[in-house]
Amino acid sequence: xxxxxxxxxxxxxxxxxQCDKNNITQxxxxxxxxxxxxxxxxxxxxMELMTNDNLKKGNDVNLRVWEVRLKYFAKGIAKLLNDPEIxxxxxxxxxxxxxxxxxxxxxxxxDQEFAKKGKFKNILRKLYNTxxxxxxxFNRIPILQISAPxxxxxxxxxxxxxxxxxxxxxxxxxxxxxxxxxxxxxxxxLDAKNEPDFPIIVVGLNERIDPKTKKLISSTxxxxxxxxxxxxxxxxxxxxxxxxxxxxxxxxxxxxxxYIFVNGDTELYKTYYDFFDxxxxxxxxxxxxxxxxNETDDEGRSYIRWIEHDWDLFGKTWSxxxxxxxxxxxxxxxxxxxxxxxxxxxxxxxxDPYETGLGHVQFTISWE
Length: 368
Prior knowledge:
Blueprint: H1 3-22, E1 25-27, E2 40-41, H2 44-51, H3 60-80, H4 84-94, E3 103-105, H5 106-109, E4 113-114, E5 118-119, H6 120-125, E6 128-129, H7 134-139, E7 144-147, E8 163-165, E9 177-181, E10 187-191, E11 201-205, E12 236-243, E13 257-263, E14 268-272, E15 283-291, E16 301-308, E17 317-321, E18 326-330, E19 334-342, E20 354-355, E21 361-367
Parallel strand pairs: 2-6, 8-11
Antiparallel strand pairs: 1-10, 3-7, 4-5, 7-11, 8-9, 9-10, 12-15, 12-21, 13-14, 13-16, 16-19, 17-18, 20-21
């Protein structure tokens, strides 16, 4: 066994040891065969599915096609992570957190040039044993990203990581496992509910970039809902927030929590996309102004719905009926519950906070 092969083999043992130690993976096939440096085979079924992707938008088969592409993308990235130079490049780019999370868009990585190796996309292209252009297939995945959702600080680029892909055909709150691969094309099933204590790469769809505008989602820059920026001098504000359940599985990174304010008496309706990092059970200093006193009847009621944003397939929405209002938001989003308060005196403190009906969010309000 040559020196390079021995190095790769020893690094794989480290990955296997980590997995067995944490008891969260289940090896599917222990026979590596000759595939340590070999190409990645693409099955005829998968090839036919990818090449016949001519279905209308909104058809569930589109998601199956994208998930198949994600699977092969994960296989390729896992194999490339056997190269520390590529691992170091990915770690540097992901560590920039361009959208506030540990991820990077494929379109910003693909043309990176590696000395004597060529462009990233061409190195990846050569791995697949198929007559179709897999880079073209990957480029068809909307807002494709590579992320390191947990334990980024433990990432040693000299040690290959498992690479998983998001199961986009399964509700992210219902899935029990996700599939990952090592650099030998060996398959592992990861626990989707409990995060590992070692780093892992996940490929999937970015949830913080608007799929239509290709810009970071914000209160003033989104096609979702009925967004409106708040005036900085508004009287009423949300002082602090405590997230008890962020409704975001570990493999999708940090949650994208936003809120909708509704005044049922005046039909005032505002959506605020202020994604924020909030550790479970810790109070977060929010300090967001949301309403003027003169915008509401002080004897009436107002409502705040908290929502965790998930990637929205084709901009669909769904509505929830409240006491005297409807709230619309992304069809894929997860509700964290709604709370009602009376406008005459909505003041609250962390000792006696408002809590959504689902029990996922607590928050405090004050007037100035």
